[in-house]
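Troubleshooting: if your tokenizer reports a length mismatch, compare your output against this known-good record of 758 residues.
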Amino acid sequence: MQPPTSYPIGMLPALTGRSLGRCLEIVEAGLVRTLDVPFGDRSKDENGRRRAILVPAGRVRSILQIPEGEVAPVADEDDAERIARIASARAEVVVRVRRGADTTFVGFEVEVPVLAPIFPAARETLLMAFVRLRAPKSVRQRLADDEMLRDEEVASAVDFMSDRAAETEAACRAALVAVAQDYARRFGEATRDLEDPAAFLKAATQADIERFVFAAQAPSEEEVRRAADKWFDKVLGSMRALRRQSRRRASFAEATGYDRYPSLFPLARSIGRRLLFLAGPTNSGKTFEAMRLAIEAPTAEVLSPLRLLAHEHRETLGAAGLRAGLITGEERDAPEDATHIARTIETIDVGRRVDVCVVDEIQMLADEQRGWAWTQALFAAPADLVVMTGSPDAIPVVERLAGVLGEPLEIRILERKNPLEAWPRPVALTDLKRGDAVVAFSRAAVHELREEIVRLGLKVAIVYGALSPEVRRAEAARFRRGEADVVVATDAIGMGLNLPVSRVFLASLDKFDGTRRRGLLHSEIRQIGGRAGRFGMFEKGWVGVIGGGTHGVDKIRAALSTPPKELTGRAFVRPNRESVALAAEFLETDDLAQVLTFLRSRIVMDHPDLKIGDMDEEIEKARRLAGVTLPLLDRLSYAVVPVSLRHPWFMDTVLTWARAHAAGNRAPKPPLRSGDLQRLEDGVNLATAWLWLAQRFPQVYADEDEVRDGVAALNGEIERNLVKLSAMRGGRAGAVASKPRTRRGRNPRPRAPAPTAA
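Known-good structure output:
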């Protein structure tokens, strides 16, 4: 189980090794952040609520870092508070003063916290009892009348209260443990027939099952059970009601809950989240500001669109002195005590509550293939503050979805820190200078440009999507160190790489987007060109075009000067595992392709704000998996494995692994063989899919460390090839890289004299 997000102050001695008296001094002096958890009782404070005081898990360590002598004395402490404070320190439990609505003294109470694994949820449940303690008769009425006590009377009362508090706390703790064990047994019996009780519990109850606070008149098990039974019976009642409701549902859309998409994430709905959108172009400091908020928070998660960015964000968190973890689809390096985690966005944990969650590149909501992950993050991130970064284009859709959620949204618009302008005329490759970047839109075009630029006597670093994050970072580092003169990249440069370039030149003003060939959008030109003129290194950034006439320059000028076009339409979603299982039951079929096809036509069919994303590849993979005798949800994992059907032998290899899995055997290791650059890249990509499956089926995909070592060796060989290609001359370069295809639709590139800035 994951650690709780916060701890009762009564548990601080065990967590910090310091005395309770010292911990109470630090908490009461306000030197660490606390959380107030209200609970119902007839006796309430001046705000009409009783509170249990908790310390967020991320702040517990700071208690150790506060030197002696830095805690100010308690101001305006009356005799009742003095007795409670000294008794707490002496008995090593928390004794509190109970007051009436008019703040008059009523009595004392002892705080008894117990963390118990009652439910199969991500975190244990906190049972927090406040048990009444009777004050000595000699002082009770005098405290109620607000009379001053003599020092010896205070000392006598402290002796009396500390003894009673220790006895009461021990008896109540034993009662709470016994009750919790009984509840765990009863819950297990009530959910024996469910495959995933935790998921069903989340769907059934909107209550906070991680925390239950109540008052008890006595520490006996009977008294504790009387108070806690109302809560536990309500949880079981909610589950029984969901069972009845599920059987009565007439339409599948209602059964899946996608017509009420926000309700699929009960933890996020229970928090009372705030949304912050840091909207701005590249080089506006939005990511820096978002990371600052994450670093300053006790706990945080940073959701990135790329593994490359997740690694960089983890390094940023670690450099700030935080205990930071990393989770992507292919790797998991997250210590149990990590307070901050960098993730790829698809790996979001909707059950791990944090103070801040950063959602990077929120405009990806509009991407038909991956947009579902950003929609899910916006709706499901269980954080007090959800910080989005991205282009101002996304403001309207974010505003609309915030309205659907009913959560407050703050928008801060950031301006670019230095100007970005169009290079005044088209250029030729001969005009390139050391430190320039050239952007093409296919692997073949990148290698063709590399060959041409190398012939001109310049060394080249290259970056494109088929390269692993490790190689992309190595190539970027080679460029930064000056070992390469020019970087040639695909539009992957537009997201996740900060390079010291003052000029970015586009080799083409159109691209194939997976469906058709089309002209570049203004937003794409701004995103890619925005990498020019990194703030702090250059006073200005330039975006230009290679070859062609003035049309290309005019288009770039228009893209840079036109206000961002607002994203319109609905946000994308994708079926989750629970909806796939429900659909299979509803259709009475085990045919995954049929189930996914049905979901594509039914989920959010008439929803005003949501629509289903592209599922063509997943459905085709499901068809090819039809003969594999694995459980439905295991086949679903293979259907969404990150390999492209554009490489048919990739999926053939995945099918081989799936058949081994179905036969009860270990999956064969991926082919990690040397060869030309294309073969090396394919080997890394296929091994990445193997590692992705290893995170889901560790017993089947064994020897993970050996595969990671093999991938590292291939990446090293790829980088050595790229370094070699960087300095080759003439036709020898093509002998290592796969033969590039002819660039169709490219702008002609007449060699023009080098322009001067306008």
